[in-house]
Amino acid sequence: MASIRGCTPWRQKMADMLNISKKSDSCFVNFSRLQQITDIQAEIYQKNLEIELLRLEKDTEDVVHPYFLAQKCHTLQSMNNHLEVVLKEKRSLRQRLLKPMCQENLPIEAVYHRYMVHLLELAVTFIERLENHLETIRNIPHVDANLKKMSMALAKMDILVTETEELAENILKWREQQEEVSSSIPKIIAEENFLHNCDVIISPLPFTSKVSVQTINTK
């Protein structure tokens, strides 16, 4: 009995240890989940950084991309070569600038010939229209006076238009009157002819009567 009683506390301790181990299993599970969440968050942060870098590369590809950089380097190199040639020929260029440019041909590279043709066309067009442009610039201070003159001329034109309309109406009325007169002239002529014929027929009657009276008296 003593041995059995001595064993019961040990069994109780073992049961407590087993319960603690079960509880520790749940703690380990939560810890593993927390570790997974931390790893996922770190991966998301890494992906966001990669996306941001790709966006930055897209926005600055004309500055950072090797193709564009090569083009810019080539352009800069050509400009540098041109400046070196200018510096080497500085004295001759200065002497040529001091001399008047008359009946001289300037050498131009073949690449720029089409641009020079277009430039010459623009220059010719500008020279042709230069006088008109200068006249326009000269007339700018007189714009207000010209506008007043134009308004006065428009008012006079309105008056002339109204007078012309009245004159046209009078002409139309005169034409109608003339047509009426011309249409009544044949009637008047016919009436005059009729009256004239009547006078011719009636006029011999008194003469015959006088003759008859004279014959009677003689008798």
From TrEMBL:
Pfam families: HAUS2
Single GO BP term: spindle assembly
This protein's GO CC annotations: centrosome; HAUS complex; mitotic spindle microtubule
UniProt cross-references to InterPro entries, sorted A to Z: HAUS2, HAUS2_metazoa
Record's signal peptide: none
Protein name: HAUS augmin-like complex subunit 2
